[in-house]
Amino acid sequence: MQLQGLIDAAVAEVGSVLLGKEAQIRLALCCLFSRGHLLIEDLPGMGKTTLSHALADVLGLSWKRVQFTSDLLPADILGVSIYNRSDASFSFHPGPIFTQLLLADEINRTTPRTQSALLEAMAERQVTVEGETRPLPDPFFVIATQNPVHQSGTYPLPESQLDRFLMRLELGYPHPRAERQMFERGHNSGAERVVLARRISDEQLRQIRSRAATVHASDNLLDYLQRLVAYTRSSAEFAVGLSPRGALALLDCARTWAVMHNREHLVPEDLQMVLPAVAAHRLVPAGDYAGDGMALVELLRREVDVIRP
Question: What residue ranges define each of the domains in the chain, with the CATH number in brackets?
Answer without folding.
Answer: 3-200 (3.40.50.300), 213-303 (1.10.8.80)
